Amino acid sequence: MASDSSYNKAAADYAVAFTEALSHTKGRWAGKPFDLIDWQEQIIRDVFGILKPNGYRQFNTAYVEIPKKMGKQLALDTPIPTPTGWKQMGELTVGDQVFDETGHPCRVLALSDIDDTEQAYRLVFRDGSSIVAGERHLWSGDYTWGKTRKVLRTTGELYRMPHREHDVIAFRIPIAAALKTADVALPLDPYLYGYWLGNGCATKPEITIRTCDLESVIRNIPYPISSSWKNTGDSVVLRICALKAVLVPSFRDKVIAPVYLRASEAQRLRLLQGLMDSDGCIATRKGQAVYCSTVLALAESVRELLWSLGIKNNLVASPSKRYNQPTGETFYTIRYTAFRDSQ
Predict the structure, then answer these.
(1) CB 259 within 8 A of CB 245
(2) Angstrom distance (rounded) from CA 311 to CA 291
């Protein structure tokens, strides 16, 4: 910089304000205003804010070189959803299919070199999950302080944002949309499978239904019922031979099979309906849907099912009780809010 030039903040502010008043013209951001991140803003300030004594800009031409794939670094063990299950980031190869933020499958077109020199941070979300991302990884989300607005921030910027109560920052990352997958051939109707996971015998082709729910559940079972009998208490046991396709050694082995988690959206919704009709309820507070289980693997697979449907959820563990007495087990409660457009 020439010794007789100086930085004019007013000129730099004007250039930044002008740039952010412009809008994108193409792609997914079309019509949305530019939202400069720190390094982009600094380039504009250096070019337009450094002035000669006569008021003209010091620089009329600028050359900016930014490395390819900037802002995409994640830890190599980050789980990535694919149409066939999960892969770690470090296992992906060119041509692999993954899901984009709209839930549609897309292909990996290129791989960046592994770089372990960039500063990384662990971001912890309100549901307890976390992700390790590089300093320059870009996050598209909502800034929620004051009037909510769409912004683009780097991991480093999020890390340095002031924290509010409960160690939360004023930034919200949108939930990815439901996975868009095709119908698949399943070993058992998804509704009945969901009901069996909650209220079925693990080793026998039987489900137990409360008498008041019997008619509505039977309407959703597309298989012949071999036999039925009165159970202890106000419930009925149905024997359905089709259930033999999904039996497991014990109730602790119950978990949603991977083929169901990558079935079509309609099939996954039917599975969720079966799960809720067996072990679910609606809370009186906030009208949240609640699913409960004492099997952690099953509870975690139900959470994955909900995420695959684009439904935000939260899991809480607490001591299990029966007739207000501790059982020695852990009770897992999943809460979520379902909206009309997801039915």
Answers:
(1) no
(2) 13
Q: What Å distances lie between residue 83 and 61, 87, 142, CA to CA?
A: 47, 10, 28
Name residue, tokens 């379902």: 338
Which helix (H) or strand (E) segment holds residue 47: the answer is helix 38-49
CA distance 279 to 13: 58
Pairing mode, if any, of strands 130-134 and 120-124? antiparallel
For residue 122, how many C-alpha atoms fall within 13 Å in the half-sphere facing its CB? Answer: 5
CA torsion through residues 333, 335, 340, 343, sign = negative
* Residue found by looking up tokens 């502010």 in the block: 13
For residue range 77-97, list pLDDT tens digits in order: 999 999 999 999 999 998 899
Which tokens belong to 318?
């607490």
A 10 A CB-CB count for 269 gives 19
Those residues whose C-beta lies under 8 Å from the C-beta of residue 321, and which sit 6 or more positions away, are 327, 331
Question: Per the structure block, which two tokens stand in for 343?
Answer: 């039915």
User: Structural domains in the chain?
Assistant: 1-66 (no CATH), 79-172 (no CATH), 190-342 (3.10.28.10)
C-alpha span between 132 and 77 (Å, rounded) = 9
What is the model's pLDDT at position 342?
57
Amino acid at residue number 253: D
Give helix then strand counts, H and E, for the chain: 8, 18
CA-CA distance, 245 to 263, in Å (whole number)?
A: 17
- Token pair 């939360």 is found at 168
pLDDT at 64: 77
**Model pTM?**
0.76
Q: 23: which DSSP letter?
A: B
How far is the C-alpha of 110 from the C-alpha of 108, rounded, in Å? 6
DSSP SS3 for 333: strand
